[in-house]
Predict the structure.
Amino acid sequence: MTQLSETVLELRGVSTRFGAVSIHEQLDLDVRRGEILALIGGSGSGKTTLLHEMIMLREPSSGSIRMFGEDILRARADLMARLRQRFGVLFQQGALFSALTVLQNVAVPLREHTGLDAAFIDQLALLKIRQAGLPADAALKYPSELSGGMIKRAALARAMALDPQLLFLDEPTSGLDPVSAAAFDELLLRLKQWLGLTVVMVTHDLDSLWRVADRVAVLGDRRVVAVAPMAELARIDHPAVRAYFEGPRARAAQPH
Amino acid sequence: MPKPSPEMAEIEWQDARIRCHGRWTVDRLTAAVERVSRAPTPAAAEITLDASQIDALDTAGAWLLQRLRLQLEADGRAVVIEGLNSQFADLYERVRELGTVEPPRAGRLGRLGTVGHRTLSALEQLFAFLSFFGAVMTRMGRLLLQPWRIRWRSVGADLHASGATALGIIGLLSFLMGVVFAYQGAVQLRAFGASIYIADLIGLSMTRELGPLLAAIIVAGRTGSAYTAQIGTMKVTEEVAALRTIGIEPVELLVIPKVIALCIALPLLAVFADIMGILGGMILAKAQLGLGFTPFLERLNEAISVRSFLIGIGKAPVFALIIAMIGCFQGFRVQGSAASVGHHTTISVVQSIFLVIVADAQFSVIFSWLGI
């Protein structure tokens, strides 16, 4: 459990094609247990597509993806169902069910996949909501009554409902003001520390990259051009990588 | 009781010592949760929770441990947790800080409170509708003085969407209604040897009542719901707010063209429904009673006065106003979410069909007072 080098997610030779357009070609990527891996790349570099392939929403045209050692492209339905309970996903817009309160939203995976009694589920859901940094009275609110930052936190609480070991975040800080974004980064670091989470996040937020990512994978030229901690990436000479270190915004975000 | 497997979260009561072992994770807790909530409190004043043999602990497991502790403490026992390894202790501490037994509950109203709440919200809705109606009418009045400011392009588009495209379904249903009515009438009239009066029956019932009513009900289901969904979705995506900040009054762009279009379209649709219904009746009269088209039409000419035709058609703009106003009003009542759009669209259709039929009944009462 404490072996840091263990690979949770392993992508080998993944290729994706939309008709004649090739998005990924022979892409390799490893996600190690207990790390926060950020996935970056310009618009259209296939970050979201790759994320969808990892969370089993889409199949690549060829290659293999292993999650917790299981080949998810050849997995039977029951194995896939079990694997789905072991990871959580935070979608970019939160994707909270608008007809349900925050408490009910967080309780959905618990009701669906555990035989726990309703009172215990409610208590647990409330615990997750507070763990995600929301006040208890937010639990009875509907998503339409929440601010952008609160929606992200509520969605994080739902993604964490089943205590997954692996968490996927799609642009978790997009649309948040800098203060909320920084608070979200802190929350993520604390959750990782308490729960030993492994996190894969797609992000454009330079501050997040410096602050929370253990390693950063850069997508470019239809493959992963580099995987390294941010400070090491600075030494790599590739246009897709350089974009994150040059220009006024990139320089402002770098720690001095 | 299933045989305890080492993989599940397990609890053993041994008087002052409660031994916890196994994997305390969310997918293996069910039996343990049940045991905790049913277990009798041990008699000893001081109880030790032995957690040294817990193999795995996640938030859910930590919460169960904390709940067990709270439960024992509530019964006045002193509780000590023993042997929790350091890795789990951090997690347990966090859960101890955050967890509460009482989940928040929405304030429940009593029966009387519910009645009061419903009454107030019904009154609030009535008041809101009246002020919406008032706002639309004053703006409409102002626009009629400056007709070039009316958005005729939208009126045209709405006229096409609510009128022209409804011809098929309204024509078909009125035709069938005419056939059904004529069939029922034919059986009775033939018994009295009064077959020719089939023209009176069909002609009067179609023009005075059925034509306009049928057209209105179909339009309420088809167009009223579309109005609600359109405006409601625009509210959810903040397009309505955007219009207002650009300086376009949403009522002027979204409501008034629809009201005008429907007030023109529905009377025309009612005429079309009249014609198709009578056509259906005429064809059935020929098939069932052997009544030729020419005598049918001659009789029809005598039976239907211009007045009864106009009474029928005159009701159509009122129905149109009801449908358009309710449809738009419910659209503006939408708040926040996709579910709200669905909810208000349903209300819109139910209310407009209900009010159309109520209005029709009112007309009948008024006309009979006036002796028309």
